[in-house]
Amino acid sequence: MSDASLAPLSPHSFDREAAAHLLRRLQFGVRPDEIERALAEGLDATLERLLTVQPESAEFQRGEAALRQTAYAASSIVSLKSWWLYRMLHSSNALREKLTLLWHNHFATSYAKVNNVPQMAAQNDLFRRHAAGDFHELLHAVARDPAMLVWLDGNANRRRHPNENFAREVMELFALGIGNYTEHDIQEAARAFTGWQLRDGAFWFNAAQHDAGTKTVFGKSGQFEGNAIIDLCLEHPACPRFLALKILRMFVTDQPVESLIAKVAAALTRSKLNVKPALRELFASAEFFAPEHRVGLIKSPVDLVVGTLRTSATRITLPAAAEVLARLGQDLFEPPTVKGWEGGRQWMQTSTWILRWNFATELIDGRGNLATLRSELWSDGKDQPDAWELAYLGRVQPEVRASIAMHWESTASMTAEERARSVLRFLWTLPEYQLG
Description:
Layout: H1 16-26, H2 32-41, H3 43-51, H4 58-74, H5 77-90, H6 94-106, H7 111-114, H8 117-129, H9 135-143, H10 146-151, H11 165-175, H12 183-192, E1 196-199, E2 202-205, E3 215-217, E4 220-222, H13 226-235, H14 238-251, H15 258-270, H16 275-283, H17 301-312, E5 313-314, H18 318-328, H19 350-365, E6 372-373, H20 376-379, H21 386-392, H22 398-410, H23 416-428
Antiparallel strand pairs: 1-2, 3-4, 5-6
């Protein structure tokens, strides 16, 4: 095995703790029964299920369609946020929704400027359609996406006055990263994208505004138009590494070491930038399950809120959940800049920690209209919190485990519901619950 290959996890190492780690990273929260299912199926079968699009229930399809129609009819971005939250909470394809979120952040586009609900929904559909697919197809589709054309001023990109916004972002933020292009490359690429505009809400190649002259990008010359520039970016040796870094920060660690970046970049190169085979290799690797990568990612607001609600709540008020996310700093469809949400330690400012604590305690106490805890949490016959500890916290230090056990014993005289609420309050307000 070459140094640039990820080492497969030994089959006997896929234990209950490893299954919980896998599911916490690949979906939004995890329930004890989901851990048991993954353990029974094994790693390979679990990955096949999670990476393959599963059929949705008729109930889900009706609910999703109704919420989308409401968003369109009212031209309401709040309703569109509710639609996407419904998908995250109830879809049979949690990993696809998580990848959709990855691409939403990667190609950060905000309703604040686009101001068009159907266009934002269509872009979200595009990310979902290509979620684990060929990055070539995704980048080409994004370049023609109406919301992106509005967001990066496509109509202002004219032959005599090239607008550099899209050319710059496709290199800096979408495909290569800073340091892998020159200002001259951007200027020349901008000329290639002249005439890529929007008319009647759809992509339009305005030939009259296209600069058909010779351009030189990355040392190569030709009468390039936009598609050729995108292909040059996709062929650039920096592209697999740039994508590897984004994937690792989403699913493994916010500070990946160079050797791990190189291995995932090599997997993407072998798959010709097809995301699914590279993800399968990563998620089945010993590196993914390494002790230093377990319970080490700070949960994004979406991971925290959607994960908690999906596994523990019912009668969820979707607009209220969207508002919680906005307060915590991750307002869906409205990323703060073209760079998206930085994530990592930026999620845990002093003010947001207090808001995270408030979210947990208000849900447990039943205050407000956000959601109701599932009664199964106190009526399923559990007589110890081990399953909750594994699902909600994963690996913890012995002293944390001892404190959980002590709290459990101290609640023995309570009713089942009181005991459940007390233990959940204890678990959800631990600093360890902020990590996934």
